[in-house]
Amino acid sequence: MPNIIEITDLQNPLLDPYARLTENQLRSRRNPDKGIFIAESKTVVSLALDAGYTPLSMLMERGQLLGGAKDLADRCGDIPIYTADNRILEQLTGFSLSRGVLAVMRRPVLPTVEEVCRNARRLAVLENIMDAANVGAIIRSAAALGMDAVLVTPRCSDPLLRRAARVSMGTVFQIPWTYIGEDAGDWPERGMAQLHAMGFRTAAMALSRDTVSIGDRCLKQAERLAVLLGTEGTGLTPETIAASDYTVKIPMYHGVDSLNVAAASAVAFWEICRED
């Protein structure tokens, strides 16, 4: 039976994860085994549950609890499900709960790079991409367009940030992913060496004179290929580009020099994974 709790005290410390804790506090770097994250929207929460993630509590607008999201409440056993009208929830969270559902979930123990890459032929590597929306959009494209897995560097925005998971439409729970390296110093030298040791050819998406087109046959013919994507503005680091097997460009027209990294990733993934 769902454990429905009507919100009467906005200062209740049990509501802190939804209203007063920062993303870093939720992540709990000092105690990773106690880390949590917030999943937002019925779709994202449902896919997290499908993937085996453990919910600790939920926050639902009353209309959602009585209607569209009732099945989520029924799936979650006797965890606390806090509810109130949207007006009260907006006072608590500081924003309109337009999607009606938030859930506190336990962070998983991430797989190793070797486990993620064991059966992967097409891999996306996100280098230092700080915008959570871009991370979520890239992961969604990777899942939708045929990439096998995603690796993120230690300085990359966390794929389980609420915004990243929401923009990914929950695909962050469907495609295998993990961090490549534990500390910033592990990338690029050690990380690139690890990719090459596993048999991946590496393709750096970058603006450079010495490039191959994204449609080049050498990319499609690579048995294992890792596509490297860098942060907005500066792009991939010079060290990463220098260590890559290919530097790759997407042909542009009308004087445009580049695409947003999320848009570029979708073009690259589709071209690399499509069947001729």
Topology:
Blueprint: E1 3-6, H1 16-19, H2 23-27, E2 36-40, H3 42-50, E3 55-61, H4 62-66, H5 70-75, E4 80-84, H6 86-93, E5 101-106, H7 113-117, E6 122-127, H8 132-144, E7 149-152, H9 162-167, E8 177-179, H10 189-197, E9 201-205, E10 212-213, H11 217-221, E11 225-230, H12 238-243, E12 246-249, H13 261-273
Parallel strand pairs: 1-4, 3-4, 6-7, 6-11, 7-8, 9-11, 9-12, 10-12
Antiparallel strand pairs: 2-5, 3-5
Concise synopsis of the structure shown:
The chain has helices at residues 16-19, 23-27, 42-50, 62-66, 70-75, 86-93, 113-117, 132-144, 162-167, 189-197, 217-221, 238-243, 261-273; strands spanning 3-6, 36-40, 55-61, 80-84, 101-106, 122-127, 149-152, 177-179, 201-205, 212-213, 225-230, 246-249.
Strand order of the largest sheet: 8-7-6-11-9-12-10
Structural class: alpha/beta
Rg, rounded, reads: 21 Å
Number of helices: 13
Mean pLDDT: 90
Task: Sketch the topology as an H/E string, one letter per element.
Answer: EHHEHEHHEHEHEHEHEHEEHEHEH
Content of β-strand? 15-25%
What spatial form do the alpha-carbon principal axes imply? elongated
Total E-strand runs:
12
Amount of helix: 25-40%
Compute the separation of the termini in Å.
Answer: 52 Å
Largest sheet: 7 strands, parallel
Poorly predicted ranges (pLDDT <50, ≥5 residues)?
Answer: none
